[in-house]
Amino acid sequence: MSDSGKIAEELAEAVARLQKELNDALRSVWAKYSSLYPDRLRVYDPLYDIEDRGDSIAVYVDVPGFRKNEIKIRVTEDTLEVIADKSEERVKEENDRKYIQRERLYKSIYKKILLPVKVRPEQARARLEDGVLVVLLPKSGAEREVEVKLE
Question: Domain residue spans in the chain?
Fold first, then answer.
């Protein structure tokens, strides 16, 4: 690997560590003060995994309880963004007691993932499997190292 490739890899690792530290800090603050806010109004930061498959990468994002039509996916050559929103209203009527109970549920997921390699966003494919979003992203090949012969 060239020096510039090593530097880029180290920079990507540093950014990933910084993102994890920031997420951990925000979770810590949220855990401390979340009781001040309604339990049903949260944006969740889902867990994810990235698998290198040679010519492509697969990103697995946990999105339990969401349907396909509630999930939006945006891909650039170096990021994957997952946005999911859901709202429900449950009504329970008890005429003998003369009241109606209403519950509202709002649930959101937002995750922006810095990809470890450049990908071809126009060739991305996605599917939902048992609460896990699977996004397949072909690598662009732009980062491959080739030897150039002098003329």
Answer: 38-138
Amino acid identity for residue 15 in this structure: V
Per DSSP, the chain holds a count of helices (H) and strands (E) of 1, 8
For domain 38-138, give the CATH number. Answer: 2.60.40.790
pLDDT tens, residue by residue, 74-107: 999 999 999 998 877 777 777 676 667 777 667 7
User: How many other CB atoms are found less than 10 A from the CB of residue 115?
Assistant: 19
Distance CA 115, CA 12 (A): 9
CB 136, CB 115: distance < 8 Å: no
Distance CA 41, CA 19 (A): 23
Full-model pTM:
0.62
